[in-house]
Write a structure and sequence with these properties.
Length: 337
């Protein structure tokens, strides 16, 4: 063999060996991510896998999991650590792709992560059919931000009209449990907003000039449902089942519309009920909120979630007629036929 050919063959072998080495390193990381019983090790591996790519040139791996799949695989591991079992992961035979589903939900819904490619990094947990982004997750900065608008759109406006609160609740519980686990185990910064269950929590609101009769409309709906809306200082309150109390009130704030900064509060004495739970369990409150949120709605992190035109008060025509509340009770089989 000539010297030139020897050098060329040696170079070829080295290039193949380097690529094989990178593949073997990836395989070791994946095996450990899937089997490690140390949550901190899983978190570190998830960080590494979601921020790297196997772009080998000489040894090509045609079927690979994407960065979005690594997020879902890590999500599955953390839910496993948190003892959540109400979901399943689909793995099609013809390709490497992970999709999360809820077997108990009698509505078609599939969830994947959508990698965010701007400077914020991270990924969005997205329902594929509606493209609703339910939360944002950054492994690097240890942040989770839930999206109140998307959660309301999907779970209340979409699913609640078609199925029961009991079938929807596993989704909400999974989201909350994941946030609590990551907060406690890794000291994550978590914005629960609509999912928060603490009794003393005042839900932050995004608000426009409030339409006249907002509380009056809730009063009418509450009367029809055998719950009585009572006046409280600067607002109104409702006592629901099992001692759950809902309060809607404002505090004086010169920087807010009409100098009134509105808040919602949910109290049950056990820090167990969220505003989302109320929307799912009480049709008249859910119907009322779906209308009024054009003007007054639970706020999510504005730097992470863009306002959607359909719910952004700034995009609504001032002359647009007021939408009438729609009852959220699921339709019967005969009505759906």
């Amino acid at each position: 063999m000539t010297k030139h050919l020897q050098q060329r063959v040696n170079s070829y072998v080295n290039l193949l060996a380097n690529d094989i080495g990178r593949i073997q390193e990836l395989l070791a990381q994946v095996n450990e991510l899937a089997s490690a019983d140390n949550p901190k090790k899983v978190h570190l591996l998830a960080q590494q896998l979601t921020t790297s790519s196997l772009d080998t040139e000489w040894v090509v791996v045609p079927r690979q999991y994407s960065q979005a799949d690594w997020y879902l695989l890590a999500f599955d591991r953390f839910l496993q650590f948190a003892k959540v079992t109400t979901y399943d992961i689909l793995t099609p035979a013809e390709r490497e792709e992970l999709t999360l589903v809820f077997p108990g939900l009698d509505e078609p819904a599939t969830f994947e992560f959508e990698v965010n490619h701007d400077d914020n990094g991270g990924a969005y947990f997205t329902e594929l059919g509606t493209q609703k982004r339910l939360f944002y997750w950054s492994l690097t900065r240890r942040q989770i931000y839930f999206n109140a608008d998307a959660i309301t759109d999907l779970l209340v406006e979409n699913f609640r009209k078609k199925t029961t609160a009991a079938r929807i609740r596993p989704i909400a519980n999974l989201l909350t449990t994941f946030g609590r686990y990551m907060e406690q185990e890794f000291d994550y910064q978590v914005d629960y907003n609509i999912l928060e269950t603490q009794d003393d929590f005042l839900y932050p609101m995004k608000q426009k000039e409030l339409p006249a009769g907002m509380l009056d409309r809730l009063f009418v709906l509450s009367a029809d449902s055998n719950y009585f809306l009572q006046a409280i200082p600067n607002g109104a309150g409702l006592v629901l089942d099992r001692g759950v109390e809902v309060r809607l009130f404002y505090v004086n704030d010169a920087t807010a519309s009409n100098a009134q900064r509105w808040h919602f509060q949910v109290m049950d004495g056990q820090d167990a009920i969220s505003w989302l739970d109320v929307l799912l369990d009480y049709d008249f409150i859910g119907a009322w909120y779906l209308v009024e949120r054009r003007y007054l709605a639970i706020e999510s992190e504005p730097l992470v979630f863009e306002k959607t035109a359909v719910n952004d008060p700034e995009t609504n025509d001032a002359n647009e007629p007021v939408i009438k509340p729609e009852v959220l009770i699921p339709k019967s089989v005969e009505e759906l036929a």
